[in-house]
Design a protein that fits this description.
Blueprint: E1 8-11, H1 31-36, E2 44-48, E3 52-54, E4 57-59, E5 71-76, E6 81-86, E7 91-94, E8 99-108, E9 119-123, E10 134-146, E11 153-157, E12 163-170, E13 173-175, E14 190-194, E15 211-217, E16 220-222, E17 236-249, E18 252-254, E19 265-278, E20 281-283, E21 294-298, E22 302-308, E23 311-313, E24 320-324, E25 333-339, E26 342-344, E27 356-362, E28 369-375, E29 378-381, E30 387-392, E31 397-400, E32 403-406, E33 411-415, E34 425-426, E35 429-432, E36 438-440, E37 443-445, H2 448-455, E38 459-460, E39 463-464, H3 508-512, E40 528-529, E41 532-533
Parallel strand pairs: 1-2, 2-5, 3-6, 4-7, 5-8, 6-8, 7-9, 8-10, 9-11, 10-12, 10-13, 11-14, 12-15, 13-16, 14-17, 15-17, 16-18, 17-19, 18-20, 19-21, 19-22, 20-23, 21-24, 22-25, 23-26, 24-27, 25-28, 26-29, 27-30, 28-31, 29-32, 30-33, 31-34, 32-35
Antiparallel strand pairs: 36-37, 38-39, 40-41
Length: 540
Amino acid sequence: MTRSTGRTYYVNAAGLDTNSGLSAAAAWLTIARVNAQQYNPGDFVLFAGGQSFAGSLFFGANNRGNAENPITVKSYGGGVATINSAALVGCEIYDTAGIEVRNLTFVGTGTGLNAPHGIYVHNDSVSWYQFATILDHIVLDTLNVSGYGGNGIFISGEAGLSGFSNVTINNCTVSGCTFSRIDALQPDSAGIIVSSQNQAYGQGQFNYAPFQTITISNCTSYNNVGVTANPAVTGNGIYMGQTYGGLITNCVAHDNGAADAGGCVGIWAYDCNFVTIQFCEVYNQTTTSANDGDGYDIDSGAFNSTLQYNYSHNNYGAGYLIYSYNDGFVFNSQNITVRYNISENDCIHSGTGNTGSIYIYNGAGAGGLTGVSVYGNTVYQSRAGYFALRLNQDFTGFAANNIFYSTGTAGLLAAAAGVAADFPLRGNDWYSAGTFSMGWAGIQYGTYALWQTASAQEKVSGSNVGLTANPLLTNPGGGGTIGGYIPANLTAYLVQAGTPCKGGGQNLATLFGVNLATTQDYYRNPALVGVSYDIGADAT
């Protein structure tokens, strides 16, 4: 559909608020004048590139566009315009949608006195379950947001199941936020966050969830440190909840959470259905909490959700956490897939309890976590006292065709007594370049044979299907920072010629009903060629 022609309003330093605003020569001067105007579908508001404007943008319910003819706010001419909002919110979009904000910089004071959010999109329209008010079409594109005590970019529903659909956050950079806000209604914080939290918590699995079809792509979130005095989960990189149909793709989160008191994560989702996190890099996620500080997490109340083609390294806690708990609102998670990811030296901090590079934890007890599929991943762990894979309590699913590589006195596996045949391990390569250690039911074993006897794992029809061979990785432990999903920069985890992992895996279709015919590995190769199943994230 062709966009209709609305009016275009200009704002620049040579303007006057008494002007019409309808041309660059008759531009407005201030944000106050911008906020006073009522806009119609198809209108544009253009700020002169390279100039700075003081104040806080506001678009309320009387300004509503639509997907075909949105109200668009952006820079014009050369360069990018800056909205310097000081101790105010940078841009507030309230009870409205059909709005696009593009190619702007938002700057707060950057001090502990600044509590507002950078970009605050919220809906508090009254709603009751399936009759929720869901506002359609928000685009935030090519924005730089920094210096806010609240969230950098916050998409929120604040009355029952009110929320938004078809939200795109693309090519945005958020930094230096989340470090002063303590809010009883919205206690958690992140560089980029989609969450109604206290208002519709527990509704993410339903197709009438507050947030529907949400995409966060090509974004970077860093140095969002959190709040030490806030017991909630603060200082996350990118965080999505109460969402039905979400995608976080090609994003980078790093150096977040340094002052967090609640246990934060680089990129994660919870209370959701059909959410995928892919093609991302997370590193240096820290926490002051005794838990978390993880790279990625699919948390409780998640259904049919996937972590794939991601890279995690040097995070305080787990690289990849699958976690379920029961608090009366969310009480289980189902059908979670973790595939073709890479973890390098996660679990770097002794103060966090998440001591497995891949860590699966069922805090809700038996039955709370079902259908967890872990396959085609490559894990490198060299931290003494930590593990490539840690399994806690009882849950169902499987882990197959993964490379678990340890050095020094790092362990390959720690499995609690509750983990039983409901979570079979098949066709994995358990390789130690140091002291071999695999645990089962709280006991560590110094040889694969002793562990296998105790666990009865890695067998099909009574025969061993696991490996303990050197996978011949190109440069294990040498991945470092790669700048996002750039497989050509992560050659460290390519397998070399002669690797036993080529064709050494198990048939996932036969064993677990997993069809890899249309699936790729981390390096964009077909995950299945003919009938050959490979082990690890490189199926070259």
